[in-house]
C-alpha cells in the first residue's frame, strides 16, 4: 500500500501543525485533520487559526483547500484514509482510579472506537498522542474486538517531540523521528509506509525504528529527563539565592562540560508542559510495583511545585508581607513565549496565590485571549468564587496600560517584547516603591535598579536601588 490519504483525529497543538507540515512536504498526499469541536475546525478554516505558532499561518494558507483540509466530517475522513494519526488530548485523570496522576485515555479510546465503527478497509493507525506504555495494545484490542470482517489494522507508535513556540521549526528539522511497531513482517511494512512519508524531508538516518513499547516509553522518558534538568537547575537556583552565587553563571560553567551540555539549564519560575507526562510515568511505575522509581520521578515534579511556590512567596514577602488591595501586574500568561497555550502555566499559580492574598491583578499577554485567562482563573480547581475573581482581574491590551498605577510587575512569560519595553516610562507610571519580579530572568536588572526599581529574580541576589541603600555595596533586597 502506498499512503495517499491521511486522516488526523484531533486538530490541536500537535495534530494541526504536524499535518500542515506533512501536507506541505507531501503535495501528492491528501491530509484531512478532523476534530469533534466545531469551533476549532471553523477556526482552522478561518483567517485566525486557533493556535499561534511562528510560521504556521503561511503553511496553512499555502496548502489549505489543496491537499490540506480541516473538517468535522470524521466518518468521511476515516473511510477515505489509508493511515490515521490519533492526535487527541491525553490529560491527567481528574477522577477515579489514578486521579491526579494517570493519563486519561478516554479520548484515545473514543478515537479507537470511532475507527473500529467506521473503517471498511485496512488502516495503519498511528498513535501520536503521548500515552502510557502498552497503550497500543489497548487500541489494538478495541480495534480487533469491533472490526468489520476482512478489515485489518497495524498500530504504530510515533510520538511527537515538538515543543510549542517552535513547533514548525521542530517539525521541519527534528533531531529524530521515532517510529515503533510490531516485530512482524506486517508491522515492519507499516513502519516502512510511515517512514516513506517522513522521508519526503527528513534524512533516513534521523528516522529511528524500534519496537512499540520502546517508542511509547521513549516519549515519557525524554520528557522526564528534560524536566529533571529543569528541576535540577531550579533546585540550585535556591542555593544561589541563599549563598550569593549566580545561577546563570553556574549554568554556563556546568553546561560547558560536554557530558552535561548547555541546553535546558535555564532556571525560571517553574511550570512546564511536562508535568502531566511525568505524573503519568510516576503512576505507571507505581502500577508496576516500582515505588522507588516512582518516588525518584515524583521528586522532579515536587521541585517544580516548590519553585513556583518559592517565587510567589518572595513576591508577597517583598511587598511587606501583604498584597491585599495592591495592584499587581502579570506580564505574560502563556506557559512559554511564542504560544498562546496556558495549560500548566506558572502564571496561573502566581495569579491564584496573589488572588488568595487579596491582590488585584492586571494581566497582559500578547497571544492569550481574555476569555482564556478568565477561564483558567475561574476554573473550579483554582477558585471557589468566580465572581470575586472577575472583580479582581483586569485584562489589558498592552504592557503600558497594564502597568499603569501598579505596585509591582511580575514577569511570568519570557516574551521578547517584554525585554525592550520602556521601563523608565513604566517606572514613572507605577506606585512607589516600584517592584519588578523577573520570573524568567530576561530583563537587564542593573538598568532597572538604576532606574529606581526594587528587582528580584531567580537564582541571584540583587542590590537595592541606590536611593534606598543605607550603606553602600553590601545591602540586598
Ligand atoms: P489539544 O487539546 O490541543 O488537541 C486535541 C484535540 O483532539 C482537541 O481539539 C479535541 O477536541 C480533539 N479530540 C478529542 N477526541 C477526539 C475524537 N475522538 N475525534 C476527533 N477529535 C478529538 O492537544 P495537543 O496539545 O495537540 O496534544 C495532543 C497529544 O499530543 C497529547 O497526548 C499530548 O500529550 C501530545 N503532545 C503534545 C505536545 C504539545 O506541545 N502540545 C507535544 C508533544 C506531544
TrEMBL record:
It catalyses: UDP-alpha-D-glucose + 2 NAD(+) + H2O = UDP-alpha-D-glucuronate + 2 NADH + 3 H(+). Residues 329-445 form the UDP-glucose/GDP-mannose dehydrogenase C-terminal domain. The keyword NAD applies. The active site is at residue 273. GO terms for biological process: glycosaminoglycan biosynthetic process; UDP-glucuronate biosynthetic process. Keywords: NAD, Oxidoreductase. GO terms for cellular component: nucleus. NAD(+) binds at residues 10-15, 35, 40, 88-92, 129-130, 164, 273-276, 343. Pathway: Nucleotide-sugar biosynthesis; UDP-alpha-D-glucuronate biosynthesis; UDP-alpha-D-glucuronate from UDP-alpha-D-glucose: step 1/1. Involved in the biosynthesis of glycosaminoglycans; hyaluronan, chondroitin sulfate, and heparan sulfate. This is UDP-glucose 6-dehydrogenase. It comes from Agrilus planipennis. The gene is LOC108735189.
Amino acid at each position: 500500500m502506498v499512503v495517499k490519504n491521511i486522516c488526523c483525529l484531533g486538530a490541536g497543538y500537535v495534530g494541526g501543525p504536524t499535518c500542515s507540515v506533512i501536507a506541505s512536504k507531501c503535495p501528492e498526499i491528501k491530509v484531512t485533520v478532523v476534530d469533534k469541536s466545531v469551533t476549532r475546525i471553523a477556526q482552522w478554516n478561518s483567517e485566525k487559526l486557533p493556535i499561534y505558532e511562528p510560521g504556521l499561518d503561511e503553511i496553512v494558507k499555502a496548502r489549505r483547500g489543496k491537499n490540506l483540509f480541516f473538517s468535522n466530517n470524521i466518518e468521511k475522513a476515516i473511510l477515505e484514509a489509508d493511515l490515521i494519526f490519533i492526535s487527541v488530548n491525553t490529560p491527567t485523570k481528574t477522577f477515579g482510579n489514578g486521579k491526579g496522576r494517570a493519563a486519561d485515555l478516554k479520548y484515545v479510546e473514543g478515537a479507537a472506537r470511532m475507527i473500529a465503527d467506521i473503517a471498511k478497509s485496512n488502516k495503519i493507525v498511528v498513535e501520536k498522542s503521548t500515552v502510557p506504555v502498552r497503550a497500543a495494545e489497548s487500541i489494538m484490542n478495541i480495534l480487533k474486538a469491533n472490526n468489520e470482517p476482512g478489515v485489518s489494522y497495524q498500530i504504530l507508535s510515533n510520538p511527537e517531540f515538538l515543543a510549542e513556540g517552535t513547533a514548525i521549526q521542530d517539525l521541519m528539522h527534528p533531531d529524530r523521528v521515532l517510529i515503533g511497531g510490531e516485530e512482524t513482517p506486517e508491522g515492519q511494512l507499516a513502519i516502512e509506509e510511515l517512514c516513506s512519508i517522513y522521508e519526503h524531508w527528513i534524512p533516513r538516518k534521523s528516522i529511528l525504528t524500534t519496537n512499540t513499547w520502546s517508542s511509547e516509553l521513549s516519549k515519557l522518558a525524554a520528557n522526564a529527563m528534560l524536566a529533571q534538568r529543569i528541576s535540577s537547575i531550579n533546585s540550585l537556583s535556591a542555593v544561589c539565592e541563599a549563598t550569593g552565587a549566580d545561577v546563570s553563571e553556574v549554568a554556563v560553567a556546568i553546561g560547558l562540560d560536554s557530558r552535561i551540555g548547555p541546553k535546558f539549564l535555564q532556571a525560571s519560575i517553574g511550570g512546564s508542559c511536562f508535568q502531566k507526562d511525568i505524573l503519568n510515568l510516576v503512576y505507571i511505575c507505581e502500577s508496576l510495583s516500582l515505588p522507588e522509581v516512582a518516588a525518584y520521578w515524583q521528586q522532579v515534579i515536587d521541585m517544580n511545585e516548590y519553585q513556583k511556590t518559592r517565587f510567589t512567596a518572595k513576591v508577597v514577602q517583598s511587598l511587606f508581607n501583604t498584597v491585599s488591595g495592591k495592584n499587581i501586574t502579570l506580564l505574560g500568561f502563556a506557559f512559554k513565549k511564542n504560544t498562546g497555550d496556558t495549560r500548566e502555566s506558572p502564571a496561573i499559580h502566581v495569579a491564584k496565590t496573589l488572588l488568595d492574598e487579596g491582590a488585584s491583578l492586571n494581566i497582559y499577554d500578547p497571544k492569550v485571549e481574555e476569555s482564556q485567562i478568565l477561564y483558567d482563573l475561574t476554573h473550579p480547581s483554582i477558585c471557589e468564587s468566580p465572581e470575586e475573581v472577575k472583580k479582581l482581574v483586569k485584562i489589558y491590551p498592552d504592557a503600558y496600560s497594564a502597568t499603569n498605577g501598579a505596585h509591582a510587575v511580575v514577569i511570568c512569560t519570557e516574551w521578547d517584547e517584554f525585554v525592550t519595553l520602556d521601563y523608565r516610562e513604566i517606572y514613572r507610571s507605577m506606585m512607589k516603591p516600584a517592584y519588578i519580579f523577573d520570573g524568567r530572568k530576561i530583563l537587564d536588572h542593573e538598568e532597572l535598579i538604576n532606574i529606581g526599581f526594587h528587582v528580584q529574580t531567580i537564582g541571584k541576589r540583587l542590590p537595592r536601588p541606590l536611593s534606598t541603600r543605607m550603606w553602600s555595596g553590601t545591602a540586598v533586597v
